[in-house]
Amino acid sequence: MKLHILGIAGTFMGGIAALARELGHEVEGSDQAVYPPMSTQLETLGIALRQGYVPTNISPDCDEIVVGNALSRGNPAVEQVLDDGRNYISGAQWLAGNVLPGRDTLAVAGTHGKTTTSTILTYLLQAAGREPGFLIGGVAEDFGVSARVGDGRDFVVEADEYDTAFFDKRSKFVHYRPLVAILNNLEFDHADIFPDVAAIQRQFHHLVRTVPRRGRLIVNGEDARLAEVLAMGCWTPVETFGLDPSLFPKAALHETHGDRADQNTAASAAFNWTARLLAEDGSAFVVVHDGVELGEVHWPLLGRHNVMNALAALATVNAVGGDVAAILPSLARFRSVKRRMEVIGRARGITVYDDFAHHPTAIATTLAGLRASVGDARRIIVAMEPRSNSMRLGAHADALAPSLDGADVVVFLHRPELAWDAGKVVVGLRGDGIAAADVDALIAALRERVGDGDHVVFMSNGGFDGAPRRFLAALQD
């Protein structure tokens, strides 16, 4: 079969393209913005990429058009597909119909941490010798691709709550019908399609409804909104993970007086899965399951949020019969995923990172992890592109300045189409702030402000016009 994928450069649709190619289909695709790492993956696979949503970019002999959720009515390619009566399908439907039947689907859902948690889970299953398939919203460093069919029974999928397609406004994850679902967290996001948190909770409950009795729900026990989702009805065994017992209702039954040993005891009582930190930056911790210590983890990731991601992944491995204690040492070699605090280089004593964080909570936790690692003596400088639909609409504007408290300097890319005033955010920053009209001005502003020992973090869920590597090149020159 010959497929044309509309929106092929997106992380999800690029993964669909990789799976289709591996299954023997002929694949081509088009997009309006093609940039690494997905463009690199597609080129390596020999998949023809065409720029723009021009109807003539779709070959006449394509049997099926796979439509990404970034395309809507009015798009020239979509209109032509409809007018011509061509066969079309969403990416989530294609995955559910062509890859998932006969597999044990392990779905990773949540506002934050989906990509990292999916990658950790896939890596652990591989370490256990289970040869999982996967579709992750980024290129996993340890596998070199964002998706593969896999030879084992397990298939890990990053389960996005964003809508499926212009013709299917359900969240993508309702198509996957997982055996095990991780519910990592739940906050307001995607302001372009969800009016409030309650609307997102309803979609999460649709996912909960699809998990069978013989399966498992792995749930962040610190998250009150997820507790509300489960209160709508739950028919599947639940295991919780968490670090802070004060955020779990049962923790009120246990007295804690601020002593770490008492807190660890309370956490073990409150959550099925918890951790005892051996390093404040999250780079070392002891995994505890139902009060029993399973072993230590020493790994390259930073931050409390990544410890939580690891607990969710470990609980899922356990749920499908994996030996958690046996695979813990493998995490020392884990290399995460591109664009998740990825160090792209160092020059003149300055470390440059490329990071995908685009929600205030993710921004805050990422910077907290970095601060715990580098200490207070080093400066953290953030270059930010407010690019997500929620960011552009201003849904997170009030929370943005507080989320950047961990930064000493912030440079915003304030494009003309931004619907809110970045200047108000700049005024509210703890550190220095500046708004730049374009990437050239942003790079110039950074160069004026950086010095030896600084850590410069580029944050965007888009291409950022190649700013991270352009800045690094400027330092090297």
Automatic annotation (TrEMBL):
<feature type="domain" description="Mur ligase N-terminal catalytic">
    <location>
        <begin position="3"/>
        <end position="96"/>
    </location>
</feature>
<dbReference type="Pfam" id="PF01225">
    <property type="entry name" value="Mur_ligase"/>
</dbReference>
<dbReference type="GO" id="GO:0016874">
    <property type="term" value="F:ligase activity"/>
</dbReference>
<keyword id="KW-0132">Cell division</keyword>
<dbReference type="InterPro" id="IPR000713">
    <property type="entry name" value="Mur_ligase_N"/>
</dbReference>
<dbReference type="InterPro" id="IPR004101">
    <property type="entry name" value="Mur_ligase_C"/>
</dbReference>
<keyword id="KW-0067">ATP-binding</keyword>
<keyword id="KW-0460">Magnesium</keyword>
<comment type="function">
    <text>Reutilizes the intact tripeptide L-alanyl-gamma-D-glutamyl-meso-diaminopimelate by linking it to UDP-N-acetylmuramate.</text>
</comment>
<keyword id="KW-0961">Cell wall biogenesis/degradation</keyword>
<comment type="similarity">
    <text>Belongs to the MurCDEF family. Mpl subfamily.</text>
</comment>
<dbReference type="InterPro" id="IPR013221">
    <property type="entry name" value="Mur_ligase_cen"/>
</dbReference>
<keyword id="KW-0133">Cell shape</keyword>
<keyword id="KW-0547">Nucleotide-binding</keyword>
<keyword id="KW-0131">Cell cycle</keyword>
<dbReference type="Pfam" id="PF08245">
    <property type="entry name" value="Mur_ligase_M"/>
</dbReference>
<keyword id="KW-0436">Ligase</keyword>
<protein>
    <recommendedName>
        <fullName>UDP-N-acetylmuramate--L-alanyl-gamma-D-glutamyl-meso-2,6-diaminoheptandioate ligase</fullName>
        <ecNumber>6.3.2.45</ecNumber>
    </recommendedName>
</protein>
<feature type="domain" description="Mur ligase central">
    <location>
        <begin position="108"/>
        <end position="316"/>
    </location>
</feature>
<dbReference type="Pfam" id="PF02875">
    <property type="entry name" value="Mur_ligase_C"/>
</dbReference>
<feature type="binding site">
    <location>
        <begin position="110"/>
        <end position="116"/>
    </location>
    <ligand>
        <name>ATP</name>
    </ligand>
</feature>
<feature type="domain" description="Mur ligase C-terminal">
    <location>
        <begin position="339"/>
        <end position="462"/>
    </location>
</feature>
<keyword id="KW-0573">Peptidoglycan synthesis</keyword>
<dbReference type="InterPro" id="IPR050061">
    <property type="entry name" value="MurCDEF_pg_biosynth"/>
</dbReference>
<dbReference type="InterPro" id="IPR036565">
    <property type="entry name" value="Mur-like_cat_sf"/>
</dbReference>
<dbReference type="InterPro" id="IPR005757">
    <property type="entry name" value="Mpl"/>
</dbReference>
<comment type="pathway">
    <text>Cell wall biogenesis; peptidoglycan recycling.</text>
</comment>
<dbReference type="InterPro" id="IPR036615">
    <property type="entry name" value="Mur_ligase_C_dom_sf"/>
</dbReference>
